[in-house]
Design a protein that fits this description.
Blueprint: E1 8-13, E2 34-38, E3 43-46, H1 51-61, E4 69-73, H2 89-92, E5 97-101, H3 108-118, E6 133-136, E7 144-145, E8 151-157, E9 163-170, E10 173-178, H4 186-195, E11 201-205, H5 210-213, H6 224-234, E12 239-242, H7 250-263, E13 267-269, E14 275-277
Parallel strand pairs: 3-4, 4-5, 5-6, 10-11, 11-12, 12-13
Antiparallel strand pairs: 1-2, 1-14, 2-3, 7-8, 8-9, 9-10
């Protein structure tokens, strides 16, 4: 039993770039990025990768015991972070309002045009089928006010086409998402450290190994060592590594997690279905 002030954090998808299934990828799952935070008052989702479909199925199974409003914070518009949106079943019945937050108010036309393209013929049936969909953006320099209580404030990441992390504050707890980030630009790295300072949970990019990263310059991702360094400097209490390479097997990620925990015990590599209470 959780307390009324608790935040339940759940991983619905932790894979990067594209869904990657099969018997060698059961423990960590194959769905792409989606996380939720839930209190007694409501729910926040971060990104709508293919894991967003599983979230929708879970909500439908709850019947009337589901939030009336969900705030969806998008980090960026790459396909692996929005591909689950057309398959989010609660929207079809009009039983839920989904407020999708764009981190940059100046990109409102691109934001709406991209989602319209995703959910329009010939890619997908018309967006008009989804009556409960609303697009929002925090005012410049201000945080988004969340239906579950608290706020979400965006900060810059280093990623092709641009991306934003989110610092979510609610009930004295801080959860920060800084995935899809390529470490190595001091100004942006330092900005992330400041934006995620003293997080109870910090989600970091851990796509590549030390051997792979040199050949992936400009691809917009990091190693767990780079994520750990950011987390240490930010004073994060727990670090969740995510955006697993689609080629990575369960055995590969388990070995990475084991090595990472030799350097810091407060590291977990994200698995679909993983939960923690904050």
């Amino acid at each position: 039993m959780t307390n009324s002030s608790d935040i339940t954090f759940t991983v619905w998808g932790a894979r990067g770039s594209i869904f990657s299934g099969g018997p060698e990828r059961l423990e960590f799952g194959g769905d792409t990025t989606c996380f939720t935070l839930e209190t007694e008052r409501g729910m926040v989702a971060v990104d709508a990768g293919s894991g967003f479909r599983a979230l929708g199925q879970s909500l439908m199974a709850r019947g009337g015991d589901r939030p009336e409003v969900i705030d969806l914070l998008l980090t960026h518009l790459h396909l692996d972070h929005i591909c689950g949106l057309p398959f989010f079943e609660p929207l079809l019945g009009g039983s839920i309002e989904l407020r999708i937050w764009n981190a940059n108010p100046g990109d409102s036309d691109l934001f709406s045009d991209t989602l319209q393209c995703l959910m329009s013929p010939p890619v997908f049936p018309s967006l008009t089928y989804f009556d409960g969909l609303n697009l929002s953006a925090p005012k410049a320099g201000m945080a988004a006010e969340l239906a579950m209580g608290g706020t979400a404030r965006p900060f810059a990441l280093n990623h092709p086409d641009g991306a934003s992390g989110w610092r979510i504050e609610c009930g004295g707890r801080v959860i920060s998402v800084a995935s899809d980030h390529e470490a190595g630009q001091p100004q942006i790295d330092n900005g992330i450290i400041e934006a995620t300072r003293d997080s109870d949970l910090l989600i970091c990019d851990a796509t590549y190994t030390d051997d792979e990263i040199a050949a992936r310059a400009g691809w917009g991702h990091s190693t767990w060592r780079q994520g750990l360094e950011i987390g240490k400097q930010a004073g994060a209490k727990h670090i969740l590594m995510t955006h697993h390479d689609p080629e990575r097997s369960d055995a590969d990620i388990i070995a990475m997690e084991k090595e990472a925990r030799q350097h810091a015990p407060n590291i977990t590599f994200a698995r679909s279905g993983w939960q923690c209470i904050l």
